[in-house]
Write a structure and sequence with these properties.
Layout lengths: L6 E3 L5 E3 L16 H27 L3 H4 L4 H28 L27 H29 L12 H25 L5 H10 L14 H8 L4 H4 L4 H14 L23 H9 L12 H5 L7 H22 L1
Antiparallel strand pairs: 1-2
The protein binds zinc ion (2 copies).
Subcellular location: Membrane
Protein name: Sterol desaturase family protein
GO molecular function: iron ion binding; oxidoreductase activity
């Protein structure tokens, strides 16, 4: 596929889409294409996460009586499934697009591949080894811990769970709103850990990967992993149900890869190249203090002036904001 039909490539070989990023249409007063937007909302990401959640629900979770007591038995089983799932999904993207490099640098934002660059900031000076170790040794255990704790709380009635038979309509709405809950939760914790000294202590680990790849998605400090996966606990406070809580967690965990794919489209056939939706978060890794949230379903970045849509104008606005911040800090120091 000719990626220059969809974007431009600079002298260094870095590719950028020509179409600016857009927040959800209803915030821009556009209601005509809502049906199409809604289909894109469901397919493919959220449908895949739903399929994964159903697989967990029917084939992985033990009986509720078992989950009333926390034990290594089911906790380790959940860890094995979580680690296996991430290995398969993240590993497949890594294998095809970063190891075998099936589409070269077509649609790739940063022309370089992490494996070709060594840096002292990483364990063993290697981004892939560092990121993969942090994923399997830190983030997946914490994901599993949150999962076990919340399921245990549901099993023992420490929640505001409602009956799915009676409240099916509300639970369906809540299920559809889980990406919005994710976006608000993620924006808040993410903005917070960008403030000093939290950034230095915690979040700088994730930002060591300026050129993110699939393994960067969960390469986090344990405090960040806890806050990130802790999103599931909202469903103990809300009138919710265990399945909705599980969907929230599953889509957060498997969805973390989305912003770190590094390619704008993944070529899967002659005329099939789905959008990755990675550009919003790629710009965050490139510029740090923009796009704290997601795709603009709840456009908090737009409202707080930190939205970067990839255009030159957004670039100028960002530079102006950075200049004002520098001046403010300089004034405070005198
Ligand atoms: Zn990231
Ligand atoms: Zn960040």
């Amino acid at each position: 596929m000719d990626d220059l039909k969809y974007g431009t490539r600079d002298k260094r070989g870095n590719w950028a889409p020509s179409k600016p990023l857009e927040i959800a249409p209803f915030w821009r007063g556009q209601f005509r294409n809502l049906g199409q937007w809604f289909l894109g909302y469901l397919w493919p990401h959220n449908t895949i996460f739903m399929a994964v959640t159903l697989a967990y629900w029917y084939f992985v979770l033990p009986d509720w009586a078992v989950m009333q007591t926390i034990s290594w038995d089911w906790a380790l089983r959940l860890y094995a499934v979580n680690a296996g799932g991430v290995f398969l999904l993240y590993g497949a993207v890594e294998f095809f697009f970063y190891i075998r490099r099936v589409q070269g640098t077509r649609f790739k934002y940063n022309a370089k591949f992490p494996a070709d660059q060594r840096s002292d900031v990483f364990w063993f000076k290697n981004q892939n080894i560092d990121n993969a170790l942090r994923t399997f040794l830190v983030s997946i255990p914490i994901w599993t811990l949150v999962e076990v704790a919340v399921l245990w709380a549901f099993a023992n009635g420490y929640s505001n769970a409602v009956d799915p038979g009676t409240h099916w309509l509300w639970l369906t709405i809540l299920l559809l709103l889980t990406p919005a809950i994710h976006e608000v939760h993620f924006f808040c914790i993410h903005w917070l850990i960008h403030q000093q000294p939290l950034y230095r202590w915690i979040h700088s680990i994730h930002h060591n990967s300026i050129n993110p790849s699939p393994w960067s998605s969960m390469s986090m400090h344990p405090v960040e992993s806890t806050a990130f996966f802790g999103e599931m606990a909202w469903h103990l406070l809300l009138p919710s149900a265990p399945f909705v809580a599980l969907y929230q967690l599953t889509s957060t965990a498997y969805g973390a890869i989305v912003g770190h794919i590094g390619f704008d489209k993944l070529e899967m056939g002659e005329n099939l190249a789905p959008d990755s939706h990675a550009y919003t978060h790629y710009l965050h890794h490139k510029y740090f203090e923009v796009n704290y949230g997601g795709d603009g379903l709840i456009p908090l970045d737009k409202w707080f002036g930190t939205w970067h849509d990839g255009t030159k104008e957004a670039d100028e606005q960002m530079k102006e904001r950075f200049r004002r911040k520098k001046e403010r800090l300089a004034k405070q120091a005198t």
